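Sequence in, structure out. Go.
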Amino acid sequence: MCYLIRVAARTDLNNLGGTIAANNNLVASAGRDLNVASTTRTQTNAQGSQTNIERMAGLYVTGTRGERLLFDRKKPAFLALPMEQSPNAGEIAMSAKFVCSIILSATFMTSCAPVEYAIYNGREELKEKTPYQKEEENIYGNMKRYGINRDNVQAMRRLNETIPPYSDPHTMIGVDDLYNPGEHYRVEMDEFILTVKVPDANKIPGQWIWPYTNTRTPEPKMAKLLQNKQGTLKLASLGWFTCKSLFPADLFGSCERTSFNAFYHTFQKKDNESFSTPEKLQHYLEEVQRSFIPTHQEIERAARERLIDSRIGNRSVLSPVAVLINRRIWIHQARGNSDGQTYLYSTSLQPMRWLVVSFSLPQYDYNANPDPSTYPAAIKRAIAIMEEMVASLRVVNTKDDGSPDPFVIERVEPAPLPVREKPPVAE
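Output:
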């Protein structure tokens, strides 16, 4: 058994989708930067892009109690404390100019931190925290204690703007430690509120929501972002492991996972007719679904002319159909390829907005195994998570004046906010 693992590079040390593990001690050093990046796979279509993690990268010290080191972009050094603080903990030391992380989330922003804040020794905390780190911990501490609100999200944005070019007017919040199972994620976009239940499952580190989105009266930076994103903004990027193991997920080999994403779309007045009723939205999505799947003629032409068509292998799992969820009409559809399936739910939010939530199931050859009763247990757990979250979907218009809405059968209230302490009253 090896008690010391040492990895070194004269310039950059890159761990791309791999695992570097030691029993007691791991030393990683680089002349320049230490980069840990999970590999990903992205599918793009008319409704947006869906990115899933393919192989998760990590550094681990198992020790006698299964100690572990994870990268986490929520912290400036992108390192989290070991899962168990054992007195037999090993030591992880790093030496590089910067530690960089692009992992554990489908939303990618390469982020780096000076290595002087990236040294762990047993159970000790990080040393010499930067002003950024101290303020971030203060903001997240307030959110954990009192709940997420506009003030602390705005404070997080101001803090992010101190480290350009990584600032973004559409502020995302890492919610790994901010919600408990059975509570409800909550995002507000313009006059609408979306809530969805937090499942009781093993979270993939790197859970993100964008709590507040203003596209009706956007400031200049947000208006530019909307233009760059072609009117589509992400609201949530969440995921869970569905494998069962005595060891931490992905420590030995891969672990099945499922993900939830939510997108908020704006469109022009000239396109409003396509989204005005459930029937018209269904027809629009049928056209989108057809464009996702190549025809026999297109497949034959690609083979004959040696063309690359990324759609080959795609198939329709479920054609768009109207479903009722908590008194609102959604258009439900599903599609897949040789190793994955994605289920989508879309609804119109008038005027000139629509919402799409998607669930991606673990990689598996669904084409060759179409009978759900034969699915592995990990996939059945993923489906159970999806069904629980779908059943909890609620959308509320806070400026509802009672006018008829073809997508709303009956008005409902949003799910309750998580119970937290009342914030102190300012003097």
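Check: Residues 157 and 351 are 28 Å apart (CA to CA). Helices lie at 131-146, 150-160, 220-228, 278-292, 296-304, 377-392.
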